[in-house]
Amino acid sequence: MRSPAGWYPLARAMQRQLVAHLGPTNSGKTHAALTALMAASSGVYCGPLRLLACEIADRLNAAGVPCNLVTGQEVRLVRGARHTACTVEMADVEQRVEVAVLDEVQMIADKSRGWSWTRVLLGMPAQQLHLCGDPAAAGLLQQLAGHCADGLTVQRYKRLSPLVVEPRALEGLAGVQQGDAVVAFGRKALHKLRRNILKSSSSSSSSSSSRREDGGGGRDWRQQQQQQQQQQQHSVGMVYGALPPEARRMQAALFNAGPGAGPSYSVLVASDAIGMGLNLNIRRVVFATMHKFDGQQLRPLTPTEVKQIAGRAGRYGSDHAAGYVTCLSESDLPLLRQSLATASEEVTGACLLPRYEQLEAFARSMPAGLPFHKLLSAFADSAQLSPPYFLADMANMVALARVLQHLEAAPVALHARAAAAAAAACDEESGDEGFCSASSDEDAGSSYGCTGDAGSGAAAAAAAAGLDLEDMFTWCTAPASADDPAVLQALLAFASLFVEQQRVTPDCMALPLQTPPASQAEMKAAEELFRVYDLYLWLAGRVGHGVFRGRKQVQRQRAQVAALIDQALREMGGAAGSSTQQQYDEMLGLDPAAAAAGSSWGKRGRYSGQSNASGRSSSLSSSEDEAEVACGLR
């Protein structure tokens, strides 16, 4: 762990040129990097969110540059493509390219996901590696370039449109205007804010109509027109981290559509999820609060968080020549002004996560039969890293390992899986929809997603003895939070089926709703179900084809949940029209005819609604006030 640059001999064999594009939000830094990417003969874009990867893939394909899309849950291959847009965790550091782009590079210091940025920065075998992000990362990038013996060029950018702090706070929701994004944190607070804006604008609109009928008291007509614009009856969209990415994208599209364009929103209620991954035509950002609960305590927003959110106002090239920002409460304005005037804290550390091979070597030095969660803890205690590197927070991995401990294999040779795979390779099944099955046209030729098993027979032979070391590493790095009861219980159910039956099918998690969610509780349950589908698809890409069956069916059901969530938000927010399944099929690259033929609206899944270890229902959490994690979705 002392010299991680040496982990990547392919990159070290090249004389790479690093180009850092550093500037604030809305400065054109990413555009400059993408221009170089599109001009290259081959390349890869690595972004923090599926939304960003999807947007870049769409942009390149529309520009005539064939581009694949690769995320943890889906692969869309384009014939003849030599470019790929992917989430940073899915970047292939074994494939040479001419140009690579690593977006939001300051996230290299994130204690949970930063290891993915470190891996790409140190290991991507690209002739040119473009690094886009906050100027606060400049010093660290210089240091890492030296570790790699690569040249580094730094290009700095300024904001393309002015950002103006308004002199006064709104002091009430009646002042919310068309084009505003009102920012709050937590699902309960956001839904309450949406209801209050709708209620306030409805009341103000009625009062304004009465005054117009009375002649307006002789006021100047321009003043009346301005007041009417401010007090119009709003339709309100929502964007927050727990929403499916597809629903967030549709909500953003309705907000960007503007008035007179059919179904649309005049106002957006959002969490800090708008700070990354969505291009929004926001005129003004209004902070309903300058504090957020981070999972442990209620704290003020950091200057970096404030700048990331406020900077979304007045996007260059939108309908607004300038961006504006203010607060709902006058008492929050001093912190807003101070945060925008304060330099972001310097990024000084690069996160590292041990590779499987390193854990395997460490396990050989430990007592036989040591549970995986104890192995992880012992590794964390023993690891020695050189500055500026630090070890990733493995608390969630340890928690998942505890949950799966009873499924671990008995003490056997560490390479038992490889031996079983070799013995059973001839037993590989065909004709299923495995993540990388050659029988699926959309996956043919893909080098992404499959690790470990050569086929279902090999997986069955190895799984019968329980989860070995490599299995545990895979299952414990899955996108499942130990604080998410529904997803945690699904992980346990999938792992149990894998060990006991050597096969996991969608039958264990059929869709539990046929109509849009009609309450916050139902909305929360639908969001949880979407995350369960995400987990299923992620595991389908890593455990081996033939084990997790029916991937396309799960993709369709996942799209249906997203469509129902979006439809519920439209109805609650006052936007006419409803989302259609075809829109989501197109987003996912699915054949609409096949999707319609294969749709399934079955009974409640076996794990759904059952009591978990804490005694709570897995489909409804006891807390409605969970914090939204800034830009943390994969």
From TrEMBL:
Which CDD domains does this chain map to? DEXQc_Suv3, SF2_C_suv3
Answer yes or no on keyword Hydrolase: yes
Q: What is its EC number?
A: 3.6.4.13
**Spans of biased composition, class Low complexity?**
200-209, 223-233, 608-622
Q: Where in the cell is it found?
A: Mitochondrion matrix, Mitochondrion nucleoid
Specify the superkingdom. Eukaryota
Pfam families in the record, alphabetically? Answer: DEXQc_Suv3, Helicase_C, SUV3_C, Suv3_C_1
Basic and acidic residues compositional bias: what residue ranges?
A: 210-222
Note the Gene3D superfamilies from the entry.
Answer: 1.20.272.40, 1.20.58.1080, P-loop containing nucleotide triphosphate hydrolases
Query: Annotated region Disordered: where?
Result: 196-235, 597-634
Which cofactors are reported in the record for this sequence?
A: Mn(2+); Mg(2+)
Q: Which PROSITE patterns match?
A: HELICASE_CTER
Q: Which InterPro entries match?
A: DEXQc_SUV3, Helicase_C-like, P-loop_NTPase, RNA-DNA_Helicase, SUV3_C, Suv3_C_1, Suv3_DEXQc
SUPFAM superfamilies, per this entry?
A: P-loop containing nucleoside triphosphate hydrolases
Helicase C-terminal domain: which residues?
185-360
Name the major location.
Answer: mitochondrion
What catalytic reaction does the record list?
A: ATP + H2O = ADP + phosphate + H(+)
Keywords of the record, alphabetical order, are:
ATP-binding, Helicase, Hydrolase, Mitochondrion, Mitochondrion nucleoid, Nucleotide-binding, Transit peptide
What interactions and quaternary structure are annotated?
Homodimer; in free form. Component of the mitochondrial degradosome (mtEXO) complex which is a heteropentamer containing 2 copies of SUPV3L1 and 3 copies of PNPT1.
What name is this protein filed under?
RNA helicase
